[in-house]
Amino acid sequence: MHTRRQFLAGTIAAAAAQQTRWNLLIITNDQHRADCLGCYGNPIIRTPHTDRLAAEGVRFNHHYVHAPQCVPSRVSMHTGRYPHVHRVPSNAYLLPDSEQTIAKVLKAQGYHTACVGEMPFAPRAYTGGFQQVLANNKDYDAFLHRNGLKYPENKGPFQAAPVPWSDDLDETAFFARHAREYMRAYRDSPFFLHVNFRRPHHPFDPPAPYDRMYSSAVFPASHKRPGEMTNKPPQQQAALEKSVGFDLRTMTASDLHRVKSFYYGMISENDKYIGMLLDELKTLGLADRTIVVFNADHGEMLGDHGLLFKGSYMYDEVTRVPLIIRAPGKLPAAAVVDALVEEVDLMPTLLELMGVPAPHGVQGQSLVALARKPASRHKQAVFSEFPTIRMARTREWKLVHYTRQRYGELYHLTEDPHELVNLHADPKHASARADMEALLSDWLATSTDPKLAPERDSAEPPPK
Known about the structure:
The chain is an alpha/beta fold. The protein contains 13 helices and twelve strands. It has one domain: Alkaline Phosphatase, subunit A. Helix 2 crosses helix 9 and helix 7 runs parallel beside helix 9.
C-alpha cells in the first residue's frame, strides 16, 4: 500500500511528465506550390514568418505529395500510407474508420487533439480522430452573416476577384484566432493542433490590403511553349478548353497577372497569421517543446502549361509542395534537405520526434536521421496517383502512366526541368521509358497493404 506522500509524489511526477511532453502544431495551406515562398527561392513573394520557421528548422526542397487533390493527399499525410492502400484515391471516397491517423495515435497517448479551419479531410466532414473541431468553414460563414457580410456571387474572371472586407475579418484571421485561443487553453496539457488554411486555394480572392500587394509585381514567366499540348494526354487539352467553367485559351497576360497577384497575396496573408501562431507559442512558453510543421496538400498550376487551378496532372507545380519542420533541440536549425522525400514520410517522422511508436502498416520512412545529417539520397523515386493515373519520379526522369491507354508522359528532367517536351512516344527514349515503367510496376507490387500480409502455412516449405 502506498503512503499518502508516495501517492502525492507519484501524482506530481506524472503531472510533470505530462507537462514536458512535446506538443504538435501542423499548419497546412491548401493548394500552395513549393516555389511560392521566399525560403524556397522566390525573389518576389513576401513570407517573412514562414521563412523564419525555415531558418529555425529543416526545409525539405523536394517533397512530393501522393495525389493532386485534397482528400487523398491529406489522408496520406495523416496515415503514412499510399492512396491505393488507404483506399481514398480521390475526393469522392471516404476514409475507412479502421485506418490509424496521427490524431488517433496521439489521442491514445493522452494528447488532446483538435483541428481548425477547413476540415482536415475536406471536402469530407470526417474528423479522423480529432476530438474537437474549433471552427470550420460553416462557422466562418456564420461569422460573416453576423457581421452583415457574405461571399460575392460573382467570383470574377478565372475566379480572381477580391473579397469586400479587410484581412482582420477574413477567414485566415478567424481561424488563427481560434487556434491561438486553443493554445492558451491547453498550454498545460499535451496537444496536437492541425490548422488548415483554405487559402491560397481558388477562388483567388484576397482581402485588402493583400489584393493590392503584388499589383505592380513582375512575376517569373510561366513555363509553357507553343504547340505543347499536341503530344500531351487529351485530358490536358480538354482542361485548357474548360477548367472550373473557364476556357483557359482565352486567358490574357493581364488576366494571368491578376491571378498571380491574388495568389501571392493570399500566401502573404496566411504568412502574417502564421507569424501570430509562432509568436503565441513563444509568449506561452511552448515554442521550445512544440514541433511545428508547415506544409501543403497539393500545388497550383498558376499558368504553367497554360493551365490554372489543379486537376489530374502530375506536373511538379501540383505534386511538389513545401515541407518545413521545426523541433528545437531535436532537429537542427537552418538545415536544407535536397533528397527526394514523400508525404507518407511525415507521420513516422513526427511520431519518432515525439517518442511514440508508429502503428503497424505505416509505409513512410522517418526523416529524422536525414534531417539531422542531410544527404543527397533518401529514396530512388517518389510516387503520386489518381484513380487511373500513376506517376513515378526520379531525379532524372518522370513517367506518368494512364491505365489502359497507349498515351502517357515521359520527361527527361535534367534536360527539361519544366516538363515541356513529352518523350513518351519517342523511340529514342524507349529504354528510359521501359526502366521507369519497371520502377512504377515494382512500386505497385511492393507497396501492398502491410497490414494484409499473406500468412505462410508452416507445414509448407518456403518458396525457392
